Amino acid sequence: MKPESIIVLCLYALLIIALIAACVSVPKIEEDNSQDKIFLDFAKYEDLYRSGVIYYPWVFDNIDSPNPFSNEKIKLNQNEIKKRILKNIFFEEDYDGNLKINYNAQIPLPHYISFNKIKENIYKAEALAAVPQSVGDFEFTVNQIGITKSFDNLHIKLLEIKDNEAVFFIRDMGIKYDYSYTKDDYIDDENEEDENSNETETKADEEFSYDKMLEYERKYDISRRGYRLSYRVNEKPNELFYKTNKIHAVVHGTGGEDLNFESFSADFRHYLWYRNTDMPYPWLAEYFYDIKERYIEAENDEKNEYHPFFIAKLRAAGKIKSVSLSVLSDTVKKHKIDLGLLNVEQNKRDGQNGNTERQKEPAYQNYTAEELEQKIKIEPYSLHIANKQITLSAFFPLTANTQDFSDTSISLNDIRLIDQYGNLYEIGEAERINIEGILLINNPYIRHTASYSIPIVETPFTVLCNVEFSYPIYKKNEDGDFVITEYADGEYPAETEVNLPEF
């Protein structure tokens, strides 16, 4: 690229960032300066602070990720808990020949299991599970924006469902936090507050407590139904601990899919104060200051002790139709379960790692190279503020062919940009990257997606490139199994127009 072209490109990049800062659009819920509008803006800016990117509307097909816990009630009886634990305990030897106790938890509740060796190859096992006294189940659709549903001191209001994102307001009426430190006239006589003030964390130097291990991991985070987090305690090598969150969700896609998702929740008062106190990104500081100026405290307390409320945002792997929430009660009943004697030889792993049975009639869809030239899409996925680049993705249609871990491939070569004035920018070999989001990691469909970082020029601009691809063709063999027999290979020129994402 010529030096003068590089200078022009940098100037355009700075111009785009200025445009982003100046063109903040209002979510289409309420046009007045309501509190809900403030909370939505906070969710947007907090998301940008944490991720560093602005996402475009979901460009891929909805990715169905069936969850065995989606269609069952979380509250389990004691016999079912015992049955599931025993079914999923197994013994195996590590590389050094040492015996290991493994357990594939299938209980979405806080619980732990202890193993005591009785004699060679025989262990006595016991479990303790915290079963909620009750569970509140809610369904939120786009028609229920602004509606509050309550259970076990939690008030949950849907603020927005938009494309593949949903935002909730969660207030806990069962406790109060001291928010004195967030006030402008607060004098700190002790230690400075840190980013996680008011959030209960298990500290390494705290005395071990079985009761704490049976508490919910995070009370206000929204996790996928069935979520559980394992712990091992150094001084208790023969005990396995599993925790879960208080709020579980099933996210339904517009086509009936069970969508995987990622989420965060933030204590509004605390993080509004913290972002205005310690903000490393100057271009984001004015947004949080604006929210601080607009927010009006609804509670009145001389000691500044308020019921905490959290803004929770989730991003799903597809367009959202509705969200089903299950809220576990704080009141639990602890069931002590005798698991009996376990024989090592009878409970050894049999070499199978989970359910390896393949779908007998997968929905493979074979295309010719000519058909794929019409079906392959090239779309912007996200805008990176810090490095002034856009992630551009090229991908196949979603079929079983793209959900196998085969050597399916797609790539973009000889990338060029043309701005609205006709100026040409030669990108050449752009950096190939993995798109962001833990919900997309290890997904075969996304693994076969080609994503690139390209610099920003003044929008709208056009991307020109050459597309190369290789797509598997499946047929049944004599045994009735689907196997790859050949590949549809192709290469063709393509172009796509890019605009800034809505913000």
Descriptive labels:
about 500 residues; globular; alpha+beta; five-stranded antiparallel beta sheet; 28 strands; about 40% strand
Structure description:
17% of the residues lie in helices and 39% in strands. The protein contains 8 helices and 28 strands. It has helices spanning 3-22, 35-51, 78-87, 210-213, 268-277, 282-294, 369-375, 444-447, and strands at 53-55, 89-93, 99-103, 111-119, 122-132, 135-141, 148-151, 154-162, 165-172, 177-178, 222-224, 229-233, 236-243, 247-253, 258-259, 261-267, 305-306, 309-316, 320-328, 332-343, 377-384, 389-395, 409-418, 424-428, 431-433, 450-455, 461-476, 482-498. The strands form 7 sheets. A 5-stranded antiparallel beta sheet has the order 1-21-22-26-25. The protein has a 5-stranded antiparallel beta sheet with strand order 12-13-4-5-20, covered by helices on one side. The two termini are 31 Å apart.
Structural class: alpha+beta
β-strand amount? 35-45%
How many helices? The count is 8
Distance between the termini: 31 Å
Task: Summarize the biggest pleated sheet.
Answer: 5 strands, antiparallel
User: Which value, in Å, is the CA radius of gyration?
Assistant: 26 Å
Mean pLDDT: 84
Shape: globular
Helix content: 10-25%
| DSSP summary, beta strand count | 28
Uncertain ranges: 1-33, 200-205, 351-360
Strands ordered across the widest β-sheet: 1-21-22-26-25
Give a brief description.
The chain has helices at 3-22, 35-51, 78-87, 210-213, 268-277, 282-294, 369-375, 444-447; strands spanning 53-55, 89-93, 99-103, 111-119, 122-132, 135-141, 148-151, 154-162, 165-172, 177-178, 222-224, 229-233, 236-243, 247-253, 258-259, 261-267, 305-306, 309-316, 320-328, 332-343, 377-384, 389-395, 409-418, 424-428, 431-433, 450-455, 461-476, 482-498.
